[in-house]
Fold each of these.
Amino acid sequence: MQITLIINGEKKTLDVQPHERLLRVLRRAGYYSVKFGDEHGLTGADTILLDGRPVNSQTILAVQADGHEIVTLEGIGTSRDLHPLQQAFIETGAIQSGYNTPAQILAAYALLQRNPNPSEEEIRAAIDGVLDRETGYVKVVQAIQRAAAVMRGEEVPPFEPLQRAIPAPPELFGGLWDLGGAGDDAGGGDIQTRTRTAPAIIVTPPEVERNRVVGKSEPKVDAVKLAAGKPVYTDDIEMPGMLHAALLTSPHAHARIRDIDTSEAERLPGVHAVLTYKNVPRVYYASGGQSYPNPLPYDQVSLDNKVRHVGDRVAVVAAETPEIAQEALKLIKVDYEVLPAVFDPVEAMQPGAPVIHDDPNIEGIYDRERNIVHHIEASVGDAEAQWAKADHIFEGEYRVHQVQQVSIEPHVVVTWWDEDDRLNIRTSTQVPFHVRRMVAPLIGLPVKKIRVIKPRIGGGFGGKQEMLIEDLCAHLTIATGRPVRFEYTREQEFTSARSRHPQILRYKTGVTADGEIVAAELHIIANTGAYGTHGLTVQMVSGFRGLSTYNAPYSKFLCDVVYTNIPTPGAYRGYGAPQALFALEVHTEEIATALGMDVIEFKRKNWIKPGEPLVMAVALGEGREGKPQVVTTSALAECVDIGARAMGWSEKRGKQRTVPGKPHLRKGIGMAVAMHGTGIAGLDMGAASIKMNDDGSFNLMFGATDLGTGADTVLAQIAAETLGVPLEDIIVYAADTDFTPFDTGAYASSTTYISGGAVLKAAESVRQQILKHVAERMLHCNIDDLELEDRRVVHRDGRSVTLEQVALHSLHQEDQHQIMATASHMSELSPPPFAAQFAEVTVDTETGQVTVDRLLMAVDCGIAINPITAAGQIEGGMTQALGYAHCEELVYDENGTPLATDLNRYHIYRADEMPELEAIFVETYEPSGPYGAKAVAEIPKDGVAPAVASAIYDATGVRIRSIPFTPERVWRALRSHSR
Amino acid sequence: MLPQQFDYVAPVTVEEAVQALSATPNARFLAGSFNLLIDIKTRRVAPPLLVDLRKIPALHGIERTASGLRIGSMTTLSQLLEDEEIRGTYVALAEALEKTGDPQIRNQDAIGGHLEYASPSSDISAALVALGASIDVTGPNGSRAIPADDFFTGLRQTALAPGELITAVTLPAGPARSAYEKLKHPAHLGAICGVAVALWLDGDQVARCRLAVTGATDHAQRLPAAEAALTGWPLVEPRIAEAAAHAADGLTGISDLQFSADYRLHMIGVLLRRALVHLRAA
């Protein structure tokens, strides 16, 4: 049937079917800014304006919109004619992956149409229905306030993020640290701005002063296209003849497939292929996107005759439409022999428990009968001697649960044969090179016949450090010869993607009478679900992180990684550290309290100091022997001091604060310290190429994958700084296995440090080539007298040539050659970033509800190459970590069926639920990093849960040793405490 | 036709809608809840025909009547929330609306569809029970009005007969004071427990009161023991304590993996006390 709509002011007549949702019809008509986030519309990615009001286009039929007016982002502004909202989103750093930016801008646009001067509270309420997994909403709110002021016609000064204080003015350390952040309140509403866009920065090293591009809050290089809602994501292409894939998943937690009958499905008109274990080669692999050789065991195959969790793969279909593919799934008859299942890792290790991996061909399982996939034992130091020094021994058990990454863009891939009969894989991945190498044997093609393209990514957070669905889509293209599109449903994101490993952690710590930690043992039982992917390395990181901050001379790590029949955990931003640091920091605070020592003093006395070696570094590498590590730079002490002053720690801690007139409320303040890594020492490698163009601009190509983090921008800043050009002269292309050099990918907080190191080397090489050409062929001088600055090569005698002249001369006129370099970088070091994390909470003692009022993180990430994107990492990371501490939880019924399979039952923080978020950078200059940088991406995940636990203890006197702090859990803890 | 596909009609009168539905077995009204489309998408139901009620003018709008307020069933939650009289007189309903969903959901969802879905954690249902609303329905056998007290009958169960659609919600003259208190489920936007209170005062005496719970039980319902404890007494601490202590008497709680029935039932008293203390101060 035909419908007529006014879309962005233009009358459009469209052919639709009655069942089609408006989302699909709009995307088919080319309005790609409207995104799929979930079937329920709860991410809000599908927001449009219908007659001026924001609605979800996924939950409205196209026919229902007949005769109505629709506005999409394309109707608000374009990349050449940006709307003030788009402009403000770019300037303030409100865009990370940009996947939900169109929806946020539309929601804000609708608000500003009816209320040109909204308060912050009104702004937060207006964007409440657009979930954001990346920014913590800080800069989004700022952007809307700024745009509102511009639209009201007010004089709005050019956007200037807070300047660095070089060196830190003494008064900053003297208690005059005003972090109220009221200065940016453009809204003029009823409450003050609770957030500030720019981080406060205190620079300790002077090196950064010289820089022109590095250390500046440059707008992201991809921000304009993202703000304009251009079709840049995996799913934003339409290919002729493209088929749609759908995955049949297991309804049983553990079953053998006796037989599958696909004949009826194959007969359904429009179905082109049905794949099962019967017609896909049985090739063993591990899906984690890791360096060669991937850690054992290889316990997965593309499609198996056994299923090991609800949501496990059974069959995959390619059909003309998504509806036909779904219907085909229903016609597949599976004969299951249901097996007993086990979900608890302790039960799974007992004799007689169901054996989850009984295939004898799989190597590398530690104890198949007891479902123990890995058993890790590592220790350093003299146990007997160190225990003998201990005057007190403390033990504690802690439990952490399973949470999901919830990138708003689901896993999505499009595969096709190109004109050279090479298989192209366009995929939303953090690891394009690992995907190419890992998928090759599964689909029976050599690596040279495969090209993997990473377009813009709508968030990953580790969930896309996997070769998760590319194999199935590729199998379908091979089977049909047609392009195939395969996107997970939101439910499959919860049942059939990855998550964070749940763990039981037991600490035993020896302390002397004067509070020195002399011995520490950590025993972890980790649940790796149905498959072992990332199971070894996540847990090794847990052990390493859990035993590094306080670095006891005798340290021992013992760990069993156990198969169960829950959906498989994997990589999730933090990668084992959030689990360990929750336990470690709560345990450490308990010890301090028991000894009657001030918590901060006890930690300060024991935390690792610059110059000290990390005792467990060699014993606990990631899947192989580690490299010796020494702390080279640490501003942890300063982070704690500054954070404590900013929070008013000494005025608030231990004061049993109440709320006047609300006797059921208690207020508390808490803290934790965190130490993370920067890349995997001796393992991670990045490479980059830089090529000079006729006009003196440069192409920068690398395999590193920006998944919204701003990595492309940071790497371009490093190149621009080195080459003496503004950022706009660097044209970034990444990542594409055909056109960019190798990179291990976006994980382990490695991109700035490792890939940035490669960019720095390549840029240095290009710089040398430029100087050499000028010295020998143009100015005929000594190379040492030349410098690159402001797009020129300048001689110390004042002569200069422009880079354009150099390019034209070297390409066309004399000694013609392409000025170009490729460089690789790896590091034997992984210099730790450090942070102090503070939290303030209000606990409702009658309901157990915990409200987190404020989170502040003071962090030493080395030099922040781009303070705004770095602050975005902190704010977004803290918000995810808050969900881990507070409300997110994957839960199952007694049959192992996941209950939290949509965003109605798995809550991620909304704009109007947020605490105040603040980031303070206390910079050090890390000599091994590009321009002094360390990592910042993962450390904000580490300290929030223990800081909130510490604050709940301060408020109520009750210590809670498991997360999340949901109301009933807290209420029960309070009740048993008061008895 | 594939099960996820269906036909669609959008009649302009209630009679046509009722007729269209009864002419096609398993047809469903599209009454303004996004839940139905999700249930179809996730293959929980597969109606061959959807009868959209959105284009029936008689089902839209808020009308002042001699006895109170008549709300057309296709009025969106946003439109209700913007209504001055609801904000001023039916405060419990306004507070419940504010706490329901997100802006897009409130712009899209109509009150009729919301009630038909009968979510156990609906905020609005408790407010309507407390305010003494009645639900007007029309079906093949004519029209009737169902008191909100009797409308919700069980977990996602209502008193709607097959083929009946909700045409309006009518609210009687407003109470002196009303409020809605909610403990939000951290895993969704609904209520772990929500309590709506409506009080009719005679001086400082509670002449009449209607109290309702949602979230803690499988459907919204009155709190008779607590009502008895308050009626005829001044709104003072011992009576409030008495009402809170007996709030959950006779009720069966529901549970999920994060919140037990015990906890939810206990919260009824906690929230009731807060609502009463709040109204006493107002």
Amino acid sequence: MCNRLSQAVFAVAMCLLALPALAVLPIAHWQTANGAHVYFVESRGLPMLDVSVDFPAGSAFDTREKSGRASLTLSLLKLGAGGLSEDDIARRMADTGAQFSGRFDSDRAGMSLRSLSSPEELNPAVDVFARVLQHPDFPPGVLEREKGRIVAAIKESDTKPETILSRRFNELAYPNHPYGLRSSGEVATVSTLTRDDLADFYRRYYTSDQAVVAIMGDLDRKQAAALAEKLTADLPRSSAAPSIPDVPQPARAQMSVVPHPATQSHLLTGLPGIKRDDPDYFPLFVGNYILGGGGFESRMTTEVRTKRGLAYSAYSYFAPLLQRGPFVIGLQTRKDQAGAALEVVRATLQDFLANGPSEDELAKAKQNIVGGFPLRIDSNRKILDYLATIGFYHLPLTYIDDFVPRVEKVTLAEIRAAFARRVDPAHMVTVVVAADPAALAAAGVK
Amino acid sequence: MLSGTIRRALAAIICAIASLSLCVVHAAETQTTEYALKNGLRIIVREDHRAPTVVSMLWYKAGSMDEVNGKTGVAHVLEHMMFKGTETVPAEQFSKIIANVGGRVNAFTARDATGYHEQLHKSQLPLAFRLEADRMANLKLSRDEFDKEIKVVMEERRLRTDDRPQALVHEQLMATALVAHPYRTPTVGWMSDLENMTWQDAREWYDHWYAPNNAILVVVGDVVPREVFALAEKYFGGIKKKVLPERKPQNEPPQLGTRRITVKAPAELPSLVMGYRAPILHDVDKDWEPYALEMLAGVLDGHDAARLNSDLVRRDKIAQAAGAGYESTQRGPGMFVLTGVPAVGKTIPELEQALRREVARIVSDGVSEEELKRASAQVVSSQVFQRDSIYFQAMLIGSLEIGGYSYEAMDIMIEKLKQVTAAQVQEVAKKYLIDETLTVAVLDPQPLEGRKPAAEPAAGVRHVQ
């Protein structure tokens, strides 16, 4: 056999030939001595490995008063840890050629390391990663500097139509819910954050029993186990699992227009959609491919771009989270066309909700998703992301094996019913940034 | 007719017919094989057997640098029109057919080339070839489709350039730094040229440049080279070669002093771009300056511990962000770029002075062996990391080939980068980071409130031929 990955992915092809008994990806799963969950796939194709460690420590765990604390905590981890200064850390990493990257969203905060698998490179890189994850120092001088940089970045970001759009949308779709907070925080809140704020947040949320370790690449199970221990053994222990409150539906449909000097209007319409473990996940996933997820095949792109030339990009997606993440439809168009474009979006959605997709559309969506399945797991990076997601959202270890059959099984009736349950225009929030109010009024948009 | 190096071709054939256990031994090595059709189409295949997928990437050596005045953006408009149907495949069907077998399709236009790619299960490669070969020869290009699509392209320009201050700065920088070479025009095209473009302009572009002898087909994935070559012969073999238009060099005259521009746009933070004229790589074996410039960029900004981040952002707190960049392999003139955003309370002149001090320090004191080694470590590891993506591998091979270098130069270039000395880095800094060939562009941020949007030019009258 050439290597484990090709062996594994070869099994995909077999699986498509209706031999579902074979595992697509042999995922090994165990817990470290202090409770961290580890997900591992061995792949010997390249002399490198990826390892990520994630925590439920995203911006949903911020409060309104200390908004930005979660994000700042993550960004300070590698700026001083275990007695190493930020420069020491940067130099040691650079010497090995290894790379850190961060992951931060409403639910998750985490870091990953990509390194060559040779011990001369790997060992020092892992040593730095272990300190950064388990012994962050949050140096006060660095904290003050970074607060200044973040405040400046927030102000800069606030001039961009896409930022104004998503902020306003989140405020209206998630009022009084942490999903409505801006992940970077606000100028007023970031300025007040202290070292204790970050250290407290770290102790509360970066705990071993909540940690999800994903490992992919050129090492064996025994080495993976040692690696996972090294990265998590000294993490804080938790007292209780953190939780995020339920998301209420917006009380009514709302429309907000924000002025901006841009040449294009940016438009977003949507509402809180589904949780990651929602039973409607697959019907909505397949249905959304047809509505606005499937690029040129989708109805949104066909109606907005192909037929009318109104926009370069028109899309819809569900972003499922621990609680109900957003469902949105979005586009950008020349200012005077915003009303016309919004009308097309609404009519397209209305028709989809009323009549659902056709048999032919469903068949083609399945052909694409099923036929394209091997592309979803054809690199170490993609597989690592699956491992991290499976671990974080407590998806079954057979998630990847089940993916194709679950898509195959979706029916037209399920798609219609799921959209009826989850996408009610009477509760949708619509935001247009940089709109010409006259153009909106002329198009009869309310 | 095999035109790649015999050694590599043989190695690939041996691997293909040998037992699988041989693959284990060579799993970490790359096998790349080349072939050429009689009509001039070259095919380069890199085997990557980690997953049963393949990327097919067809490159045309026709980018925005091949455009002429008044028709800027036509290379990119044609890229859009390539999805608008042939004699046998109706408009929009190209993407749909590929999507129906689970494939992903897209395209890109750059200064040097235009590329079309499909990522698929390996069993679907013949489909991608059939469709690409069809649109290489049989594009329909109707006026109706053009009139709709040109509006989409104008929206793309608004989205990606007109409403993005940093993109405007870059556009203006290039238009100022260069006066003769077509790298001075934006790939998306000036809005006025888009407004006045006709379907015949797109047709002319297609007729001139879309030919097998102006294309390179790069395939990376779980494939057997000789099977790919046979497929290429089957689908592309019948397409006639063309006499290509003459390419005028349009060389830049020497720059005789610093040029400075300001761009006003809605933003909060000012920013600074300093572009220095720099050479590009011509002779992979003999040139050394481009490699030294690459390492100079690495020492300044190749990783978190590099000088600009470490000195200007972290230690001196004079910059919110700072960076350096240089591309050694391209068709047109090179540029070594320094960028920065001043920290709050610092000014653009202070930041410019700080960047100049960093340059001056390298000119006077050079760089340490330790720094060079560190920059080199990134070169070595990224060589491995980038092989995790077959798409990225195809991009690398194609862009080297389009630039006039062989894909085989890649290994030589890595070795050459590792051999760069501290003295060489110092020497190129001294020679090229000089005021005479510098262009400085500054973003002067404007408040959002109380400003009218930049007036759009009145819709132009369509040119009638």
Amino acid sequence: MKWGGPYDPELEAIWVPALASCSEEESSYLAMILDTGTPITVFHTPIAEFLGLDKSQSVGKVRFRGLVESLEGYQVIVPRFEVYGRVRENFKVAVCQLDPELGIDGLIGKDFTRGLRTLLDDLDGRIIMTDERISIP
Amino acid sequence: MPTEKMTWEEIKKLYPDEWVLITQPEANESTQVVAGCVFDHNEDHGYIHERMSELKGKGAIAVLFTGKPHGITGFARVDLDPEP
């Protein structure tokens, strides 16, 4: 299988489109940063709450220990999470209150690409995720 | 009040460098929003999140920025605890 799509290589980060859904009535398209240095996909709290994934749905805690301060949040199960056509069902994500000044609604972590070969083409602005062999000359 | 359906290119031209809250989003196969109705728009991301709560349970939405977003760097260690 192969999934993929375009991104803008001129931007300062790798912004990719995503779709998070709990039901037809509770789903949101988002622009998220692909951050393979983050072990778990992270949603900004207002997005999770819109999806009905508030703290009452928590399946675990999460703590982000930063250079100057720590952030605490919770983990929830997103019934459907899609990036470039690749769908993860019952996908566990972290939820925390991000600084609104950051201007992000979430990070796509390494958990999304785990088990796949991921090719980042920063010349043409394309990401390919596949479970097939990729020939790199 | 939401606008009539517009393309993403039209939305970007009409509301440059703003956050837009879109209802009835249409997306391509790459999950990129290509059209929708603008429910509200603002430079303040937090304001858009407040408005978003009014649309809870009323169908799919999209929250997008029409400008060029900044990069971020994340220096954080992540500790996951299975206890709710």
